Amino acid sequence: MQSLSQQQRLLQKLSPQQIQLMKLLQVPTILLDERIKEEIEENPALELDVENDEDKTLDEKIAEDIKDEFSQEENEDYLSENDGDDFEHIQIEDYVKMGDDDADYNHQGDGYFHPDEEESFSFQPKFESSFYDHLMSQISLLDLDDRKIKVAEFIIGSIDDDGYLRRDIPSIKDDLSFRQNVQTTEQEIKQLVAAIQSFEPAGVAACDLRECLLLQLRRLRVNPNVQCAIKIIESYFDEFTKKHFDKIQKALDLDGEDLKEIMSVITHLNPKPGVLYSYVNKAESYILPDFFVINNNGNLEITLNQRNAPDLRISNAFKDMLLDYDKGTKKDSRQKEALLFIKQKIDSAKWFIDAIKQRQQTLLLTMKWILQFQEDFFLSGDEADLRPMILKDVSDRTGMDISTISRVVNSKYVQTEFGVFKLKYFFSESMATDSGEDVSTREVKMVLNEMIAAEDKTMPLSDERLTEMLKEKGYNIARRTVAKYREQLNLPVARLRREL
User: Which residues contact 435 (CB under 8 A, 6 or more apart)?
Assistant: First the structure.
């Protein structure tokens, strides 16, 4: 049986401004300029506060197109009845404040980093050839007809970013037939793959690591060491990957010095030939600090990168249009429609400017508490001075949600006199030593890394032995924890750390 009932519930919803702020918090400084440019392109009511009028030409042209609507003699009914009600509630003085400096919304105040005015932050794009384009440009070196060129192009398109062709020949043949309507044979595909494997860089289009290394070795100048290296990869690849050097040495009847020279030939090859041409995200390849920490005679001072404090304001052209409308006498429906459009764009611009301001305040507040928590490190630069700190510690002190702190910490950097650090660097869990003192897990990793760096590479330390040595230093942790920390440090197991 169905029935109707009323329920009263309290729901929490994010406003458009809060959503916009959450998105802006995640944007690193190096990409903030692009985000602001996108907003300015979408909203003609928003502009940078620059003295050069030429930079405002585009906004003013768009604004003039709207302003022309005010001078139309036509009085067509473009507005619905509800739109007319919204228009009646528009207060011009809410959008135009004559003589009020706050109308410019310039939030660059004290406490921010001010570089010299002559310094330019304009980014010059770097044009580079992609890995795919580099391979495609070499097809012309082959004597192929149009059909074979299409097959070769499809094969190159199937090569991954590392430079490997991991798709099998039958699958390539089927895709060419059904998707490209190109008829070919497996034999022809194999011949073209072999031709592409002669391209630069050496090792490209290999199906696996073994073939990749062989392709590179066969291009080297022939000598006894290269010939022996080829034999090792062809016949003893499994022993090579597991570093069973004694088996290889016994099978090929080599002395230790000869084996060392042969291994040097192999280890100098490139296991990922495509990486040299791979695309690197600009945000990852260029580090632009979000904060600057300066030690002023023992007093730590924080400044925010100026790029986080752009001079944004509402377009003067839009404010002038509202003034012209307010002074006018004839207000037809077309003018009302234009006025509602202007109101919408100005509101959107205000929201964005406020979000940028809140972003600055949130970044500075978070960094302030990180600085207070890790003051010893910022004064000494010694990793051992880092205190255990998690997101909740900063959240409790700032009064902000953990998710907000996480967004601030993500992809943000701070420049100190000891170098540039990612904010995540300062966060680590704690563990208790035998003396009952809480230490950062980062300190344990640092000690573990030092142990492995100082070990005898001919007889590397096992995880069990590393665990015993850490316990001797007062760090009572399990062997599986040692293995986890070792993996986080990108250090292989003892067998794979072995050297001749």
Answer: 474
Burial (0-12, 13-18, 19+ Cβ within 10 Å), 363: buried
pTM of the model: 0.54
C-alpha closest to that of 113 among 303, 290, 288: 303
The per-residue pLDDT of the chain, averaged, comes to 77
Instruction: Report d(CA 49, CA 324) in Å as an integer.
Output: 22
User: Closest Cα to residue 105, out of 269, 301, 311?
Assistant: 311
Amino acid identity, residue 404? T
Q: Which residue has the tokens 């590479």?
A: 457
User: What was the pLDDT predicted at 279?
Assistant: 55
Q: pLDDT class for 37, splitting at 50, 70, 90?
A: confident
Say which CATH topology domain 430-497 has.
Arc Repressor Mutant, subunit A (1.10.10)
Terminal-to-terminal C-alpha distance of the chain: 82
- Sequence-distant (6+) residues with CB within 8 A of 105 are 312, 313, 314, 350, 353, 357
Confidence (pLDDT) at 285: 57
Backbone angles phi, psi at 416, to 5 degrees: -125, 175
What are the residues whose beta carbons fall under 8 Å from the beta carbon of 41, sequence distance 6 or more? none
Determine the number of helices (DSSP H) and then strands (DSSP E) in the chain: 23, 8
Report the 10 Å Cβ neighbour count for 495.
Answer: 11
Q: Torsion angle of alpha carbons 98, 103, 104, 107, nearest 10°? A: 150
Q: Report the distance separating Cα 366 and Cα 404, nearest Å.
A: 10
The confidence score (pLDDT) of residue 11 equals 67
Domain residue extents for the chain: 15-117+282-427, 131-277, 430-497
Q: Using CA atoms in the order 411, 412, 416, 420, what is the torsion angle rounded to 10 degrees? A: 20
Tens digit of each residue's pLDDT (9 = 90 or more) over 270-319? 888 888 776 555 445 577 888 999 988 889 898 888 877 778 888 878 77
Contacts of 374 (CB under 8 A, 6+ apart): 385, 386, 387, 389, 426
How far is the C-alpha of 132 from the C-alpha of 161, rounded, in Å? Answer: 9
Beta bridge partners of 302: 293
Q: Is 138 exposed, middle or buried (0-12, 13-18, 19+ CB in 10 A)?
A: middle
- Is cis: bond before 201, omega within 30 of 0? yes
Between 83-87, 246-250, 338-342, 401-405, the lowest mean confidence (pLDDT) is in: 83-87
Instruction: Name the helix (H) or strand (E) containing 143.
Output: none
